[in-house]
UniProtKB/TrEMBL annotation:
It comes from Streptomyces spinosisporus. Its EC number is 1.2.4.4. SMART domains: Transket_pyr. This is 3-methyl-2-oxobutanoate dehydrogenase (2-methylpropanoyl-transferring). Transmembrane segments: none annotated. It is an enzyme of class 1 (oxidoreductase). The keyword Oxidoreductase applies.
Amino acid sequence: MAEAVTVRTMALAKAVNESLRRALETDPKVLVMGEDVGKLGGVFRVTDGLQKDFGESRVIDTPLAESGIVGTAIGLALRGYRPVVEIQFDGFVFPAYDQIVTQLAKMHARSLGKVKLPVVVRIPYGGGIGAVEHHSESPEALFAHVAGLKIVSPSNASDAYWMMQQAIQSDDPVIFFEPKRRYWDKAEVNTEAIPGPLHKAQVVRPGTDLTLAAYGPMVKLCREVADAAAEEGKSLEVLDLRSVSPLDFDSIQASVERTGRLVVVHEAPVFFGSGAEIAARITERCFYHLEAPVLRVGGYHAPYPPARLEEEYLPGLDRVLDAVDRALAY
């Protein structure tokens, strides 16, 4: 008999689909729920075919009521299920913010550890797709500030597959931010690999002159920046953080101790963004290794603009390269 093919090239969206399929096959307590996740297969077709194969009691089309979706998932988790909830777009999560912050994040502590809530909240996030208002936001810092939640964001198909598996298996609630502008980016996925820790950062390009730290949609941009800088003789290390809460400060510190400089890149506004926490902590940890201040590149402190202006709003190659030049000029 021919051996099953375990390494396949697939888009990030397909990798999430395959990971959900594997979880539904493996554990009858796993449920997928959300607006249009069933018959339609989701607006990005991430859940395509799952309801047909697993039925309406496992892949559930819900009403347009995010607070009710998450509240129902909390009740199901209390009864032993492992719900995977889809919020259709990033900006739609705020009606459910109360349930996530006051119930989902607090129940474990409130019960003195007796109650676990293994709920995954999937949120397609970020810009770059020319969408209308409330469809391109990056609210990860709002959730990272809340104790009791894990916040992760894959940058490639392989991580999307394995991080979703790990999120579903976690007994803690996980907010799973999917970079929608990378849904169609393809990469090899080994479905029988042994994944590393969920919250461990990864060096995706080694370098010696400066560290670029990013997660989700900005990792690909940082690799492009490193390629452009290499043409000018600059060696940039690219660190994929993968997790926003907890943050792998040890890996960031180790990289900065090698390079002496750090630029943090994310789509979310720089003001009070996750880069601020990284900059503060690394300045404390690496003060005597830093050759320049930690710099941050991100969105502006303004509402997300109309589609025709989003390229001006989002961090791009030139803005990141400018920060690199400023850091190297010290």
